[in-house]
């Protein structure tokens, strides 16, 4: 599962590149740091066969007022909530995501990611400019933290997913490096 993730620009050139798409914005600091459901995040979509950045809100507004933040890869095609958005594929850019693990009587927050490297999470977006993160069954070391995890794509898988909608098996996705976060 993915209930929070982290994002930081790695250099000034990345901010300047994004400014070309959003010239009306003075700053992108609001995108940085720990991201929570209902906040805006940076992601990529395919428009006219080009990968372009978008700023969208995390979570589909549910029919009962709830916010849906994740979508199971195994049931995407069966759930009416997601069926109509299967062509609206996106990739969420992160520096990692968080999971909590019970250790003794307390829960310890872990940052899951690769040091000095972005992770690309598969997602879907809707006409309300909201997105969800696609999850799959946890595998490898991730199973020690949670039974679900975001579907993390390599750069090559990201392009294939955006263009064709092909999702790889979880075991073929990017491998994680875990780090205990400061508490």
What does this 3D model show about the protein?
There is one protein chain. The chain has 183 residues and is mainly β. The protein has a single domain, classed as SOS response associated peptidase-like (hypothetical protein yedk fold, Alpha-Beta Complex). Helices cover 13% and strands 42% of the residues. Strands 2-1-9-10-15 form a 5-stranded antiparallel beta sheet, with no helix packed on it. Strands 3-4-12-11-8 form a 5-stranded mixed barrel. 27% of the residues are buried. The chain contains 3 helices and 15 strands. This is Abasic site processing protein. InterPro entries: SRAP, SRAP-like. It is an enzyme of class 3 (hydrolase). It holds the Pfam family SRAP.
């Amino acid at each position: 599962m993915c209930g929070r993730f982290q994002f930081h620009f790695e250099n000034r050139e990345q901010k300047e590149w994004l400014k070309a798409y959003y010239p009306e914005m003075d700053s992108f600091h609001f995108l940085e740091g720990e991201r929570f459901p209902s906040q805006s995040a940076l992601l990529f979509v395919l428009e006219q066969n080009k990968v372009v950045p978008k700023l969208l809100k995390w979570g589909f507004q549910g029919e009962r007022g709830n916010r849906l933040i994740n979508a199971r890869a195994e049931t995407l095609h069966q759930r009416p909530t997601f069926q109509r958005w299967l062509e609206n594929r996106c990739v969420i850019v992160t520096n990692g995501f968080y999971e909590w693990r019970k250790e003794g009587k307390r829960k310890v927050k872990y940052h899951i990611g690769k040091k000095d490297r972005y992770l690309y999470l598969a997602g879907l977006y809707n006409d309300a400019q909201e997105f969800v993160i696609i999850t799959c069954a946890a595998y490898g070391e991730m199973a020690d933290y949670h039974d679900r995890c975001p579907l993390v794509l390599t750069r090559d898988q990201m392009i294939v997913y955006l263009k064709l909608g092909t999702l790889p098996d979880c075991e073929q996705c990017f491998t994680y490096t875990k780090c205990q976060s400061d508490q």
